[in-house]
Amino acid sequence: xxxxxxxxxKIFWVALIALILFTILWMVLQTTFFGTFYVHQKSNExxxxxxxxxxxxxxxxxxxxxxxxEVVDFEQRFYGTTATLYKQGHKINVYAGGYSAMPxxxxxxxxxxxxxxxxxHSDSPRPAKPSLDDQNIEMQPLLPTTYMNPYSxxxxxxxxIWLQDADRFNTLSETGQVIxxxxxxxxxxxxxxxxxxxxLPNTVNPIGGDAYLIAxxxxxxxxxxxxxxxRFYIYFYVLAAFPILLFAYFLSRTITxxxxxxxxxxxxxxxxxxxxxxxxxxxxxxGQLAETMNSLARNLQQTxxxxxxxxxxxxxxxxxxxxxxxxxxxxxxxVSHELQTPxxxxxxxxxxxxxxxxxxxxxxxxxxVIIEESERMAHLVADLLDLSQLExxxxxxxxxxxxxxxxxxxxxxxxAPLLNGKSIHPQLIGFDTEEWWVQSDRQRLEQVLINLLGNxxxxxxxxxxxxxxxxxxxxxxxxxxxxxxxxxxxxxxPYIWDTFYKADRSGSRELGGTGxxxxxxxxxxxxxxxxxxxxxxxxxxxxxxxLPLQDKD
Length: 553
What we know:
Helix content is 50%, strand content 15%. By secondary structure, the chain is α+β, with helices and mostly antiparallel strands.
């Protein structure tokens, strides 16, 4: 939490300070350089406009005795005035003609030029040379008398300051070159002005000497504007403070909130919670980062699921391998027991016969035991051979049309000694219909039935119930064998089909088999595509299987 707050406040203060500094810098740049930039632009424009007017005078388009409308517009545009200056030696006559009659404009008593004798005239020059001391000549108005240039009165002061430079006319020696000069501090208002001058050609000079076209432009408007702007910024800062704070706040929130959300998701991912998702609809880099994190979470989730599944399968395989190892050991013990018992019996009864022990029926009994145990070992060897074929893949079926009901009855006849030994009377359910033919290998089908019915008979108590039921299911027939007795433990049900597995671990010769029979049944039924299984009943166990039906031609 503390880190998140520090990041938020850091961005907020950085944004706020940056905005304040930018605003201050903008104000300083405007107040400091705006005036200089304005003077530069004004000087260039003044020079270009005066040059244009100069060419019209030089080409004879305009008469020096007339101040045309373009010149008046020029004076209004630049808040100034224009005049013609004639220099003869140390005497200078300045004519601001073209307006209504005005009195002579005396030189400013504050600034006197020692180098020149200056006379200011309000009329236009005439072809005849006027007296240089005459400063009160009336002029005829060339424009309507309603216009009076308010800046003509400042011409004397401006020229007095402008002519303080002794080399002023040397810089204007080249005809047609406009030179703009900035002057200031010539009155109590400390007003700045621009003076532009260009030397006129001798062809348009009516009185001789050197003639110059002078333009005066005031800079007072820009000074007033700068002062107004400086006062305006005070109110601007007060009014802009709240928007700047809001902008800094929302900027910091815009940056930190997505990062906080991403951080929360990253912490959940660090705890292996790959269901975490960044819910963010943005198309910028943060949105791309969120989509990348979501993709990472999905990939990690899928990878962990695959690893979990692989680990589960591996654990199952390991457990199955351990189970098989235990079954192999148990099988070795069972086989050893199964072989040791008949071998011992055969050996004992054979020695008894050799020693002529017993007579008559007793010798026949000894011989019967030897034959029975020999058949038991032969059956065990046959099952081992079948199992070997199943595991090597060399097991094959000889398909044919097999009568199911007849095959069941045939197997029951073979198992009659076992049934009679326990006084069991099998109940055949569904056998009162016509014969059903199935696609199978009769020898292998009999092997399946002998294994299933043999297991059932071994577990049925004396005079117990044994049911064999057949039910037709569309294109197949379902065979169920239900025997009364103890149910199979639920933990053993998934494994009874495995090789070497015996649910009865007591080693009883009467109840326990070799653990191979059901494995053989499973392999044969799988070759049939059969649906088989086992389930516990309330008082017994039911094995079931399906076989494909086939019409008998």
